[in-house]
Amino acid sequence: MDFSGKRVLITGGSRGIGRACAVGFADRGATVAINYRSNNDAAAETLETLNGEGHSMLQADITDPEAVEGLVAAAIDAFGGLDIVVNNAGIWVDHVLEEVDYEEWQDAWKRVIDANLLGPANVSYCAARHMIERGGGRIVNVSSRGSFRGEPNGPAYGASKAGLNAMSQSLAKRLAPHNITVGVVAPGFVDTDMAARFQDTPMWEDITTQSPFNRIAKPEEVAAAVMFLASEGAEFSTGAIIDVNGASYLRT
Ligand code: NAP
Hints:
Helix content is 46%, strand content 14%. With 252 residues, the chain is of the alpha/beta class. The structure holds NADP nicotinamide-adenine-dinucleotide phosphate.
């Protein structure tokens, strides 16, 4: 895959899967804007490791609609346009129904839907309006296996990612006439900070044996699917949801 001359914005590009995407796109010739929420050091470290010139790091909280508008505008300003957007930033919040009070329950739903669904919806809006003007583009959204398999400890997370899948497929239809594709990658457990909190728990053995490979995914394996959907030959895969879960959950 060759992304020479392509300008890419990756939300949550400072750590984990977003970072692997940033490295992958930069290795293949793209100019990359790494968005992050608050961890300046991680963003700076990622920026430092990217091959090539002209990359940037852009702080913005994607749960703030005004900040999203500013983020997309800043990326367009920095690069003179945007070709590819990866909606990768997302959060997990534990909210086991029998253990949380009603206030905590509502708070978890609000935070998760804001970050995992409304954030990508607003980024997609701002980016797509620009892409329509410039004649096309690629949007790739990072969802989760949990959208299909259920998340008993985090139902808002499962619902947010199912919503992200449905939003992506609706936008794939809406935006195809504008030469804009919208694809989804749905990973199972991936070796990032988000999954690391399970490492010293009794759940870890179950997590690592869910796949017949007896391991969880590497961030680079998710990035490979993201880059495929953003690549030149993948136009007709718009609306597709690619599983990256090591055959831990097979759906038809
Ligand atoms: P991670 O290691 O926790 O990194 C999260 C990234 O998102 C960081 O760059 C963080 O920035 C950024 N971020 C979080 N909230 C943000 C906000 N409101 N505004 C802007 N940036 C924000 O996460 P990850 O494991 O790489 O996950 C990336 C995506 O993959 C998420 O959508 C997640 O749901 C999905 N996913 C992950 C797994 C897994 O097992 N890891 C499995 C399935 C799906 P700061 O560092 O500044 O906070």
